[in-house]
Design a protein that fits this description.
It contains nine helices and 13 strands. The protein is an alpha/beta fold.
């Protein structure tokens, strides 16, 4: 029996297909892979697994095809103890991705969103009735934007804290949706793309990690979101608050990366978002920084395991490795 949901995750399921190489292929090159792996993924599903493995009751709302990959999703979720509500489509396939991972653990990803593009706003609104007492809602942009808007509306009506991981950055994303977001978790590239969608063309994704904290905070504060956490990959993460510091003493700060043996960074951002929303639930009387530090650690630990959803670490594993 799934645990009583404290967090609602609305988002995507994707069947991942990953190839491992010593280096990324050059244009026109066929490169021999050193390994292959396939398994459950998708930003929404990864984040739901990350949240549940951190010990927090999780309701997942997503969309799959009536096919073998969709049945894989349904089988995988059972032992995870997640309350999964699937909208099953007979006319469109379950989403699938192609991932290439190099020797440094970095990745290149292409995804066919399939059934995720057909997640119905009405289905989302209906399934929210099963989590009226949940305190947090987490969504991404790997489903259609109408479903994302419906999730934000439903969370607003229920008085939940609304968290958006703007990934992948959607070309038709309406910046007006940010008015309904309390917490934003982009990576460097997503932050730069989102800034451009909001009319700011002066953000260089490759330079963000090297900016002084005050300069980076000034860039972040141009977006109308109370709290933004930029995940910086090998450079850790950066936290920026507006007026409400969520218990922190500082308006902005960063956490350095943890020392890990990274072999696959795919899904690390999902580990961060899922662990962050679960830590906010677990550490609700503590400053925001405690949850952000824990999420930074969970994301780092996830890179030591191949895959995405299967690589999401447990709460006990994170504490055992890095401390409470």
């Amino acid at each position: 029996m799934p645990a009583f949901p404290e967090v609602v995750v609305v988002g995507s399921y994707v069947q991942d297909h990953a190839w491992f190489c010593d280096a990324f292929p050059q244009r026109g090159e066929t490169r021999i892979a050193t390994g292959f792996n396939t398994g459950p993924g998708g930003k929404g599903f990864n984040q739901a697994v990350a949240c549940r493995r951190q010990g927090i009751g999780t309701l997942f709302i997503g969309s799959i095809g009536d096919d073998a990959l969709g049945r894989n999703a349904q089988r995988f979720v059972e032992p995870e103890d997640i309350d999964a509500r699937w909208q099953v489509h007979a006319e469109v396939p379950t989403a699938a991705s192609s991932i290439v991972v190099d020797a440094r653990g970095e990745n290149r990803i292409v995804v066919s969103l399939g059934a995720n593009e057909h997640l119905s706003p009405d289905f989302v609104r209906t399934e929210f009735r099963n989590a009226r007492s949940a305190r947090f809602m987490l969504c991404q942009l790997e489903s259609n934007l109408d479903a994302v808007a419906a999730a934000l509306d439903a969370a607003s009506a229920a008085g939940m804290l609304r968290m958006l991981n703007p990934a992948p950055m959607h070309p038709w994303f309406d910046p007006a949706l940010l008015a309904q977001v309390d917490l934003l978790t982009p990576n460097e590239t997503e932050f730069a793309l989102l800034s451009r969608r909001c009319g700011f063309d002066d953000v260089d994704a490759d330079a963000l990690a090297s900016l002084e904290d005050a300069a980076l905070h000034a860039l972040v504060r141009r977006l109308p979101v109370q709290t933004t956490v930029i995940t910086l990959g090998a450079y850790g993460c950066f936290v920026s608050h507006a007026l409400d510091r969520r218990g922190d003493t500082e308006s902005f700060y960063r956490f350095a990366p943890e020392n890990v043996r990274a072999i696959d960074s795919t899904g690390a951002g999902d580990a961060f978002s899922g662990a962050l929303v679960s830590a906010l639930t677990r550490f609700d009387s503590d400053p925001f920084a405690k949850a952000a530090r824990h999420a930074n650690r969970a994301a780092a630990l996830s890179t030591e395991t191949v895959g995405t959803a299967p690589a999401m670490p447990t709460f006990d594993a994170v504490v055992a490795r890095f401390g409470a």
